[in-house]
Amino acid sequence: MIDFNKIIKFFKNTNIPENMLNRGQVVLNNFLKPMKILFEQKNVPKDPWTDDQIEFLLQTLSNMDTDKDSNAARVGEREARIASNLHLKTSAGFCHGIGRSGFLTAPQPKAPGGSIMYDITNRLAKNILNNFGLPNIEKAIIVPLCTGMSLSLTLGALKQESDDKASHNKRTVLVPQIDHKSLIKSIYLMGFKSKIVSGRIYGDAVRIPIEDIKTNFDDDCFAIISITSFFPPREHDDIKEISKFAKEKNLIHVVINAYGVQSPEWMKLIRSAIDAGRVDAIIQSTDKNFLTPVGGALIASPYTKTITKISQAYAGRASASPVVDFLISMLSLGISGYRKLI
Questions:
Q1: Is 180 annotated in the active site?
Q2: CATH 1.20.1070.10 fits 112-318, yes or no
Q3: So where are the chain's domains?
Q4: pTM score, two decimals?
Q5: Please, are residues 226 and 242 in contact by the beta-carbon 8 Å criterion?
Q6: Distance (Å, whole) CA 248 – CA 307
Q7: Would residue 23 show up in a list of annotated catalytic residues for this protein?
Q8: How much is the CA Rg of the chain, to the nearest whole Å?
Q9: Which of 70, 73, 78, 89 is an active site residue?
Q10: Which residues pair with 266 in a beta bridge?
């Protein structure tokens, strides 16, 4: 086994001068140092990585997966059988995906490298939120789903595991008016009903007063959605007051923070809402917040058990591609690079 930090020892007896070998080792160590720090700290790096460093990390981890084992007899293998090597590029080599059937964050026996990659990525997801406005988040997860589908997954998981026995037959989700089909469709997809609270015009803005939300509440409601960012003239919801109301009425409260990580003001709203009342989960789009291709979301919660429930509700093994996309963005931006963007 080669220790890259001591690679020059293999060439001590060659005609290459020792000072040249030592210089080369310094360069190589500098290249590898960010990876060592990442494995030790499991945080978003302070400074950006180079593309070469990111690619080296991905290749190293993906080569740990069993589909790369040239000595294995893959008789009966069901997954990671690919038609073209182009698939290796689109998946960054993680053809086995992530998770196990029925548990998204469970280690995958056929993908040791993919499991490490996913564990690191989820830790970076929590860390980036902690650094940019939500220090009171306990757990986060990257899912290969859009924002709307992530809401379906979250509502389905939390409704199913509700501690309130009386809410078992309740089907209604309170929704402050959003003139966008995706979130409403995500509620219908789960077999739930939406009760939309109409907005009011205040000057050049549209708002949904908390009083109107309280008035629209009925005994069939089991959850409420709040929104930080939406298309003007719609303003953000009064998330803090909604969180208090959710706590009072024992409602599942999901914050749709689709664009919000890039806004310190909106992150402050969520932080205060968590402290003041009940917030079960916060959903962020990875492409809108972290410059990735479309197809991923970051789901976070003040409670570790909530993310566990959501992970366990995912049906099947998942694609690694949106996860890798988020990891690439975090490493290529770093804390300093992301701070410059906002």
A1: yes
A2: no
A3: 1-39, 112-318
A4: 0.91
A5: yes
A6: 22
A7: no
A8: 23
A9: 78
A10: none
Q: Please answer whether residues 282 and 301 qualify as being in contact, where contact means their C-beta atoms are separated by less than 8 angstroms.
A: yes
Catalytic residue flag (residue 123): no
- Selecting among 101, 160, 198, 336, the annotated active-site residue is 101
Q: How many CB atoms lie within 10 A of CB 231?
A: 9
Per residue of the chain (342 residues), what is the pLDDT tens digit?
678 778 888 888 898 898 988 899 999 999 999 999 999 999 999 999 999 999 999 998 988 877 766 666 555 556 656 667 788 777 777 877 788 877 888 778 777 888 899 999 999 999 999 999 999 999 999 999 999 999 999 999 999 765 556 667 899 999 998 888 888 999 999 999 999 998 898 888 888 999 999 999 999 999 999 999 877 788 889 999 999 999 999 999 999 999 999 999 999 999 999 999 999 999 999 999 999 999 999 999 999 999 999 999 988 888 889 999 999 999 999 999 999 998
Residue 258: phi and psi, rounded to 5, are -55, -45
Of residues 162, 113, 128, 107, the one with CA closest to residue 317 = 107
Q: Note if 317 is an active site residue.
A: yes
- Is 78 catalytic? The answer is yes
Q: By 3-state DSSP, what share of the chain in percent is helix, strand and coil, each rounded to 5? A: 50, 15, 35
What own/partner pairs with CB < 8 Å and gap ≥ 24 does 211-217 have?
A: 213/174, 213/176, 213/242, 213/245, 214/245, 216/174, 217/174, 217/245, 217/249
